[in-house]
Amino acid sequence: MSLPASTAPKKVNLRRPDIMEAVQAQVLSHYRSELVERIRANGHVLSAGDLTIKLAKEFGFCYGVERAIDLAYAARKSFPPDKPIFLLGEIIHNPEVNDQIRNLGIKTISNKPTDEEMNQLRSDDVVIIPAFGTEVATRRKLEEKGCMLVDTTCGDVMSVWKRVRQYSKEAVTSIIHGKAKHEETKATTSQATAYGTGHYLVVFTLKETDYVCDYILKGGDKADFLEKFKGAYSPGFDPDVHLQAVGVANQTTMLRGETEDVQRRLRTVMIQKYGESEIDRHFRFFDTICGATQDRQDALGKLLRDPLDLLIVIGGYNSSNTSHLAEMGEAKLPTYFIKNAAKMEPDKIVHYDQHKHTEIESLNWLPKGKITVGITAGASCPNNLIEDTIRRLFELRGISVQHLLANG
Ligand code: SF4
């Protein structure tokens, strides 16, 4: 949809070589880790005394996150220091990175600004859109206001939007495998309804998927259906009407195996209902798990085939891709999902329980004697936090990493 000239977004070139050079230096100083680089070069393993740590082959910052951070830093460098710059919510899901962004003087407003916040914005204010994108209505309002948008939406998220828009044009309801309240999924669902009469339904678990499949096949109580999925479907969605042709897409950071199961179950039920020869009219799917999420899940899958005593997963608690790494670990061995090294003490660890949505304490978490600890980190976790975790682990065994490096 094209905008009238007066509301067309203002463009500014942030990627000037001088700016990007300064940005690179600053980003490295904030997030780089020499220790992590050395472990990577050393086959992803570091051993001393009775402790061995093994880092997954792929971990930490993905290309989308790196780009979003670079653009936010570049925005701050491109405009005079007194020019207000606003960020919609969080740039990525990592508290330390968001603190750094605030330290640059970038102000956070809600990811879906209230009317009051919108009224306070002035034409020409700079507004950064985070890596997971923003809802169509929010973007429109900002454009109408005349704000300068620094759009850091990851290309992989935009690929999902494209797919969902296509479904909407073809009167196919988007079934989105994801968390209905996650910013990325909200932005994606807004694409399903923004350019026509499209509908969507968000499913998060296989149990929910089975419920939908059952409804498709046998029908059911519409009121129950709508209550169960409250907040996860488009306005006017009617399960008796809008589940006749469905297209599956997913939040980019879901667990691959689960997303495939969602696709398989819906496809099977559509074949049962309409027959194999009619499947193309009633079912579509497109794999929209991003490459970085896939690489991190694959690398952890390999690491988990090694004998490990425990796994540490580092990342923000609201990070979807990190929570799925923790889920993979939990299925195999004691797994601790922490946001930073301060959570580790000799006799206890404070870690996130994603099923209870809260931090919990585990005692005697670090076994005595010879142990191997696996480590991975989500796509929004910087290397300096991974380094802190590794240092802390060795420190808890009375070993100084500084000493190891000096002798390495
Ligand atoms: S996790 Fe994937 S979709 Fe999200 S920013 Fe990184 S590359 Fe993009």
Secondary structure: elements and pairs:
Blueprint: H1 17-31, H2 34-41, E1 45-48, E2 51-55, H3 63-78, E3 85-88, H4 95-103, E4 107-109, H5 115-120, E5 126-129, H6 136-145, E6 148-151, H7 155-169, E7 173-177, H8 183-194, E8 200-203, H9 206-218, H10 222-228, E9 246-250, H11 256-274, H12 279-282, E10 283-285, H13 291-303, E11 310-314, H14 320-330, E12 335-338, E13 348-353, E14 358-363, E15 371-377, H15 383-396, H16 401-407
Parallel strand pairs: 2-15, 3-4, 3-5, 5-6, 7-8, 7-9, 9-10, 11-12, 11-15
Antiparallel strand pairs: 1-2, 13-14
The structure holds iron/sulfur cluster.
Residues 62-65, 131, 154, 156-157, 252-253, 290, 292-293, 321, 379 line the site of iron/sulfur cluster.
Can you walk me through this structure?
By secondary structure, this protein is an alpha/beta fold. Helices cover 44% and strands 17% of the residues. The protein is built from 16 helices and 15 strands. The chain has helices at 17-31, 34-41, 63-78, 95-103, 115-120, 136-145, 155-169, 183-194, 206-218, 222-228, 256-274, 279-282, 291-303, 320-330, 383-396, 401-407; strands spanning 45-48, 51-55, 85-88, 107-109, 126-129, 148-151, 173-177, 200-203, 246-250, 283-285, 310-314, 335-338, 348-353, 358-363, 371-377. It has a 5-stranded mixed sheet with strand order 1-2-15-11-12, with helices on both faces. Helix 14 links the parallel strand 11 (310-314) and strand 12. Helix 9 (206-218) packs parallel to helix 11. The chain is globular and about 70 Å long. 44% of the residues are buried. The structure holds iron/sulfur cluster. Residues 62-65, 131, 154, 156-157, 252-253, 290, 292-293, 321, 379 line the site of iron/sulfur cluster.
